Amino acid sequence: MSDMTSGSLKDKVYAAVMYDVINGEYTVESVISEKRLSEKLGVSKAPVREALIELCAQGVLRSVPRQGYVVVPYTERNVQEMIQYRRMLECGCLEECFDRITPTQLCRLESIVESEFLFLSRNDTRDFWNHTFNFHLTLVSFSENEFIYSRLNSALNACMRAYLQLYWKKDREDFPPPPRLHREIVESIRQHDRERAVETLRRDICTLDFPQQF
Description:
single chain
């Protein structure tokens, strides 16, 4: 759990709740109360309420009058819409900035891919998503558009929560393989093959829509 002794208390409560949502401590059946959370974290209700309100604004939680807060459930339709959004955002960005990607940027992306193969734990879903975030956010950062970057960061967080809620089981032995499509994207950029790079990125984004293929 996050350290509650430094920084904004609201931010620490936010991080603690998000951590528990991601790790399955809070499921769609859980009810989170301000009182219990305040006691659990040893902080007053004010920062707890502020954090929960922010999580509601971001679509992570939903307030239930006279009960507390619950995790917002995802549906297959939600996932399809997220995938469509990411395809339009990320593929459009790559199309637009493809010719401006520098050798230094490409080397940075290549280094990220190699680290995925070297250090990706096949039994730690957080590790998988951390590496996925790093690759996709780095690629979209080449557009030098902070607004797009922040929107993709939010979309990736939503995708992660949807995947954990709908598809992933802690006792499941099969786990996503190393991201070979990421390596193919890098190779396509290095070969100046815009069409192949964009199509491979589209396929990579769509893997979340087909969990049975993992």
